[in-house]
C-alpha cells in the first residue's frame, strides 16, 4: 500500500553502461510532473576525493556500503516530502534489494529493467574509458531477483524511445508491483 502524499519512484536497474543515465535524462522532459533524477554516481561524487590516509580494501568496501545506504535513505526522504524521483542504480548485491524493500516500504516504486547485450556493454565500457573493462559482465546479480514492472533493451533502441516506453508503462501496471512481489517473497513475515 502506498503512503498518501508521497512521491513516486522509478528505479532504473541495469548493469553498468546499460544506458540507465541516458534513459533517465530522456525521461525527464516526458513526465508531466516535476521529477528529480538522482543517480547513485551523483551521491558518490559528493564524497571527498582527497583523504589524509589511504583506505584499505575493507574500509573502502564499508565506505561504499554506507554511501549506498545513505542513497537509499536520501531517495526515501525526497519521496516522503512528495517529490517524484528517478533512481539510476544497479541492484548488483542482494543486500541492496533487501534494504530498499525496507527503506521504500509504503512508496510507489516502479522497477524498470534496463537491459543491453553483453557485447554492446563491453563496447560501451571501452568507449567510456571510465569503468573497468568487464564491470558490467561481473554484475551478475543485477537481474537475479527476477522481478520488474517494465523492461527496455538499449542494445539497438535509443534512450528517447526507451523513455517513451517507460512513460507508457508507468500507469499500466495492474496488480502488485515488482517491489511488492519481492517484499512478499523476501520478507515473508511482513517486517519491513
> Which CATH C-level class is it?
Alpha Beta
Q: Quickly give the CATH architecture.
A: 3-Layer(aba) Sandwich
Biggest sheet: strand arrangement: 2-3-1-4-5
State the total count of DSSP E strands: 5
Count of helix runs: 8
Number of domains: 1
- What's the shape? globular
CATH superfamily: P-loop containing nucleotide triphosphate hydrolases
- Radius of gyration over alpha carbons? 17 Å
CATH topology: Rossmann fold
Extract low-pLDDT stretches: none
Strand content: 5-15%
Class per helix and strand makeup: alpha/beta
Assembly type of the chains comes to: single chain
- Percent range for helical residues? 40-55%
Write the layout of secondary structure elements.
Layout lengths: L7 E6 L6 H8 L7 E5 H6 L11 H24 L3 E5 L5 H10 L4 E8 L2 H11 L6 H4 L11 E4 L5 H12 L7 H9 L6
Parallel strand pairs: 1-3, 1-4, 2-3, 4-5
Helix pairs in contact: 1-7, 3-4
Task: Walk me through what this model shows.
By secondary structure, this protein is α/β, with parallel strands linked by helices. The protein has one domain: Rossmann fold (3-Layer(aba) Sandwich), CATH 3.40.50.300. It has eight helices and five strands, in the order E-H-E-H-H-E-H-E-H-H-E-H-H. A five-stranded parallel sheet has the order 2-3-1-4-5, with helices on both faces. Helix 1 packs across helix 7 and helix 3 packs parallel to helix 4. 32% of the residues are buried.
Amino acid at each position: 500500500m502506498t503512503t498518501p502524499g508521497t512521491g513516486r519512484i522509478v528505479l532504473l536497474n541495469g548493469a553498468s553502461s546499460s544506458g540507465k543515465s541516458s534513459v533517465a535524462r530522456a525521461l525527464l522532459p516526458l513526465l508531466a510532473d516535476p521529477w528529480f533524477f538522482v543517480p547513485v554516481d551523483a551521491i558518490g561524487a559528493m564524497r571527498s576525493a582527497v583523504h589524509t590516509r589511504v583506505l584499505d580494501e575493507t574500509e573502502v568496501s564499508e565506505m561504499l556500503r554506507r554511501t549506498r545506504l545513505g542513497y537509499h535513505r536520501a531517495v526515501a526522504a525526497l519521496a516522503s516530502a512528495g517529490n517524484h524521483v528517478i533512481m539510476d542504480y544497479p541492484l548488483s548485491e542482494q543486500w541492496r534489494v533487501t534494504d530498499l524493500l525496507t527503506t521504500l516500504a509504503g512508496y510507489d516504486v516502479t522497477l524498470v529493467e534496463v537491459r543491453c547485450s553483453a557485447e554492446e556493454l563491453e563496447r560501451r565500457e571501452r568507449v567510456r574509458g571510465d569503468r573497468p573493462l568487464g564491470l558490467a559482465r561481473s554484475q551478475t546479480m543485477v537481474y537475479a531477483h527476477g522481478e520488474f514492472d517494465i523492461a527496455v533493451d538499449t542494445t539497438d533502441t535509443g534512450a528517447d524511445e526507451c523513455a517513451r516506453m517507460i512513460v507508457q508503462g508507468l500507469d499500466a501496471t495492474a496488480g502488485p508491483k515488482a517491489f511488492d512481489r519481492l517484499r512478499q517473497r523476501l520478507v515473508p513475515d511482513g517486517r519491513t
